[in-house]
Design a protein that fits this description.
4-stranded parallel β-sheet, alpha/beta
């Protein structure tokens, strides 16, 4: 199993590159936002715990998020690897993810950081996306 972490600022093309990597290599996309919404919708114990924090306006603790990631890994044994989108964000999350992956007998194969010039990032937000595609 080959796992990737993808980082980049909003508008840097993470979504586009994620789609390409997933399509070409059969990775499972793991976005903590998507995982949180899915667990909450399914009313899993971790989802309910996360919702409790969110309803109070608090951040969901790392151990809850890592628990959800562990479930996602377990629920997708057929994939070639996982693409972690913007996670981990802190040193503590990184250490927790490394520990979890060791328990699952896998590791991060590569970290990709997308770098985009400020001018391009501003353009991505100033021009509506529908106009970007029409102009090209």
């Amino acid at each position: 199993m080959f796992n990737i972490i993808l980082f980049g600022p909003p508008g840097s093309g993470k979504g586009t590159q994620s789609e390409r990597l997933i399509s070409k290599y059969g990775f499972k996309h793991l976005s903590t936002g998507d995982i949180l919404r899915s667990e909450i919708a399914a009313q899993t114990p971790l989802g309910l715990e996360a919702k409790n924090f969110m309803d109070k306006g608090q951040l969901v603790p790392d151990e809850v998020v890592i628990g959800m990631i562990s479930s996602a890994l377990d629920n997708n044994p057929q994939v070639q690897g996982f693409l972690f989108d913007g996670f981990p964000r802190t040193e503590a999350q990184s250490e927790a993810l490394d520990k979890l992956l060791r328990l699952k007998q896998t590791e991060i194969g590569v970290v990709l950081a997308l770098e985009v010039g400020e001018e391009e990032l501003v353009k991505a937000f100033v021009e509506p996306r529908s106009n970007q595609w029409q102009k090209r």
